[in-house]
Amino acid sequence: MGVRRSFKFLLRPTSKQAAALTQCLEDHRQLYNAALEHRRIAYRKAGVTVRYGDQAGELKHIRADDPEGQSRWSFSSQQATLRRLDKAFAAFFARVKAGRTPGFPRFKGRGWFDTVEWPKDGDGCRWDSQPQHPTATYVRLQGVGHVRVHQHRPVLGTVKTVSVKREGSRWYVVLSCDDVPAEPLPATGAVVGIDMGVASLVTTSDNVHRENPRYLAVAADRLAAAQRDLARKKPGSKRRRKEVARIAALHGKVRRQRLDYAHKAANALVRDYDVIVHEDLRISNMTRSASGTIEAPGRNVAQKSGLNRSILDAGWGVFLQILAHKAESAGRELIAVNPASTSRTCSCCGHCAKENRATQAEFRCTACGHAAHADVNAAINILRAGLALRRAAEAA
């Protein structure tokens, strides 16, 4: 049975193609903002709800009135941009219905709109548009031309959608493919529980610790120096734009390093274990600010801010997402369990108390005296909880 996967490759556009890609992104951003303004005014002035179908029907007139602008780009890509806005409104109303903080869709400023999607390969775009070329791969984009692709691995399955994304000064093409053949690995018979942490990214119930490289902390001095230089530059100047690009490049390197490390850590787990149990972490809740309000200010704000920065630098969310994708492709079983009290419960006698966690790294049970590394003890509890859920599901 095939799975859905994405393939991301670096683009090598010429200077003219890079300028065309930039203009394509800008025109789609303006289309998104104009569609959002249309919805807001229609509801505020006349109480009319404008939907995707209404706005998509106006695209033909918009393109006819702007032959040197909007009409240069693929009709289907513009429809995808309008669908993107429609999804933002659908998510907004879902949050309202659920009683959460709504977060009304916002206008996209420069730098906050970085992706254009072509929803069907062959409609305004074509992957591998020059298959006869002996050494290079190209993707054709309407209004841009045949752009060279740095293809570092084969594309599997059937290409369904093509997206172009800007990250700093780099351009990438992202292919979403269906029917990608799964690559099941041979069974090992091994099971493992993993505890996510800041000191170690992953600690297993087998007492294996995978360090947290803290890429953001390593780059912190260079980022701070770049931010200081940026503060001294005149707004709107060429030097300021260069400094902004420098900071974006530093953050981009950190992001790529973190992603590469997460892939390697997930590969090691998927290769060695048939069943992997992890904590069902609510990272957005864990990294919520402790500053509070003017009337009710928070406590230990500086410490909480530092902890939040360390959690985000570790990249737990990225790692768990990659682990889920690799486990599905390899035919491994992934189980998420409630992490409550796993770090305070003794893996020997089951006694649960706050005092059991003597320090961040040391666990010593106050009931039976069992001593172990705190993260290893938590990983064992996580594994047991996951296996219990698995048995209950099999018995049901």
Automatic annotation (TrEMBL):
The keyword Membrane does not apply. Residues 316-382 form the Cas12f1-like TNB domain. It comes from the Bacteria. InterPro entries: Cas12f1-like_TNB, RNA-guided_DNA_endo/Transpos, Transposase, Transposase_put_HTH. GO terms for biological process: DNA recombination; transposition. Residues 1-45 form the Transposase putative helix-turn-helix domain. Residues 183-289 form the Probable transposase IS891/IS1136/IS1341 domain. GO terms for molecular function: DNA binding; metal ion binding. Keywords: DNA recombination, DNA-binding, Metal-binding, Transposition, Zinc. The keyword DNA-binding applies. In the C-terminal section; belongs to the transposase 35 family. This is Transposase. It comes from Nonomuraea terrae.
